[in-house]
């Protein structure tokens, strides 16, 4: 069956500890003050199973929990700390935001490296980005780590502003991810993938092209890979990762989520944007072209990471390839070699595996779904979407191009 072939290898969400996070807002509370403000863990319960993330072929990396937290500008009830020990991220839902003019709310990490600011009008130009799920309220952008600090900033004496928090996603740790996902081997023999930064000097072109690749958090609880295509505001991932406007609007794209040092396990928070508009979804099953084309909000903030271009003609068996992506949900890694560094490089095993796909044994794993497969000219020759050694598979990029050519600017 199709799902048995997908890359569902155990995902590992790595918490960054280096200094690559987002800038601290001047209004973010100091860490010492944070932990004295409120109890660290408000009472919460696991949401019903029907509300948990479950998409065939996508690695589940989080749990939805419900709580009842009310903040107001009355007295000291202006800070709520949401903490789930061991969580790899916290994503907070604000069900009601009633703010007086000039008041605002921040959702921050305890150290302030990530801080997102929200005003009453939720204007992405003047406030931070956010996601939605079709229900009242909004989802703040996720915060890396096991703690999110929600603070109401008000100059009012009392009873002018009220904030209600009713749900949050918390990221699973490695053991929980193993428990909640099927493990299917897509790493062929020895895993030769390395942190993207490991290739900054030895393979500068491959390193640079990987900048356009982002980690995808789907509706708060799933992981895939996505990337910018062409010169305009367009992104590609797999159809089996998401395929509806609601899912696009509910998801985050995290650029520059990669380690600062080779093997350092020290990624920062990177730059997060939300999904904007769904443009096209492939027809047929996920064994076929399996693509989703969409755009993001706050496009200007991610343009500096570069873009990729689709090959417009079929590739050939034996062509050298490499794959940057977020396999296992970790910081970005690049697969350049088959089994050992400076050994045989990854190559197309069969350029016509079937009507829709090429095959290769270049290492991938759960979370790599949606990764670009690039050739030595740094054109995308396939969209990775199926795992199963020795025939990991990617949908043929020139066929995808034929379907979306009028929707992208592929001149580069």
Description of the molecule:
InterPro entries: Peptidase_S1_PA, Peptidase_S1_PA_chymotrypsin. Keywords: Signal. It comes from Actinoplanes xinjiangensis. This is Trypsin-like peptidase. Residues 1-32 form the signal peptide. This protein is mainly beta and 412 residues long. The protein folds into 2 domains: 62-171, Jelly Rolls, CATH 2.60.120; 185-405, Beta Barrel (Thrombin, subunit H). The chain is built from 6 helices and 26 strands. It has helices at 2-5, 31-37, 174-180, 204-209, 245-249, 397-404, and strands at 44-46, 59-60, 62-72, 79-83, 89-98, 104-108, 115-118, 130-131, 138-140, 143-144, 147-153, 162-171, 194-195, 213-218, 222-228, 235-237, 252-255, 271-281, 292-296, 321-325, 333-335, 348-350, 357-360, 372-375, 380-386, 392-396. The strands form 4 sheets. Strands 13-21-20-24-25-26-23-22 form an 8-stranded antiparallel sheet. Strands 1, 3, 5, 8, 9, 10 and 12 form a 7-stranded antiparallel sheet that branches. The chain has a 6-stranded antiparallel beta barrel with strand order 14-15-16-19-18-17.
């Amino acid at each position: 069956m199709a799902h048995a072939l997908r890359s569902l290898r155990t995902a590992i969400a790595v918490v960054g500890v280096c200094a690559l996070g987002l800038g601290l807002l001047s209004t973010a509370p100091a860490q010492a003050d944070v932990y004295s403000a409120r109890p660290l863990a408000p009472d919460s319960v696991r949401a019903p199973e029907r509300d948990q993330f479950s998409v065939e072929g996508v690695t589940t990396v989080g749990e939805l929990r419900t709580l009842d937290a009310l903040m107001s500008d009355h007295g000291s009830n202006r800070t709520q700390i949401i903490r789930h020990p061991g969580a790899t991220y916290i994503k907070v839902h604000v069900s009601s935001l009633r703010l007086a003019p000039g008041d605002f709310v921040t959702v921050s990490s305890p150290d302030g490296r990530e801080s997102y600011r929200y005003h009453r009008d939720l204007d992405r130009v003047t406030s931070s980005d956010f996601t939605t799920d079709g229900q009242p309220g909004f989802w703040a952008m996720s915060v890396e780590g096991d703690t999110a600090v929600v603070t109401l900033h008000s100059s009012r004496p009392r009873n002018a502003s009220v904030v209600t928090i009713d749900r949050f996603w918390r990221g699973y740790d490695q053991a929980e991810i193993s428990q909640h996902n099927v493990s299917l081997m897509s790493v062929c023999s020895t895993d030769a993938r390395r942190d993207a930064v490991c290739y900054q000097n030895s393979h500068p072109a491959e390193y640079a092209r990987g900048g356009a690749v982002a980690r995808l958090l789907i509706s708060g609880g799933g992981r895939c890979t996505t990337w910018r295509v062409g010169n305009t505001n367009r992104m590609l991932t797999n159809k089996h990762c998401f395929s509806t406007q609601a899912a696009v609007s509910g998801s985050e794209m995290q650029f520059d989520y990669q380690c600062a040092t080779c093997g350092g396990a020290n990624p920062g928070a990177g730059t997060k944007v939300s999904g904007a508009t769904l443009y096209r979804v492939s027809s047929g099953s996920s064994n076929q072209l399996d693509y989703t084309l969409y755009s993001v909000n706050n496009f200007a903030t991610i343009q500096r990471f570069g873009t990729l271009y689709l090959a417009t003609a079929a590739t050939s068996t034996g062509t050298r390839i490499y794959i940057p992506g977020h396999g296992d949900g970790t910081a970005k890694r690049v697969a350049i070699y088959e089994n050992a560094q400076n050994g045989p490089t990854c190559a197309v095993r069969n350029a016509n595996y079937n009507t829709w796909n090429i095959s290769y044994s270049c290492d991938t794993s759960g979370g790599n779904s949606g990764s670009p497969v690039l050739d030595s000219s740094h054109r995308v020759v396939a969209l990775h979407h199926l795992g199963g050694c020795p025939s990991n598979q990617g949908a043929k990029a020139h066929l995808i191009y034929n379907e979306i050519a009028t929707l992208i600017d592929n001149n580069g």
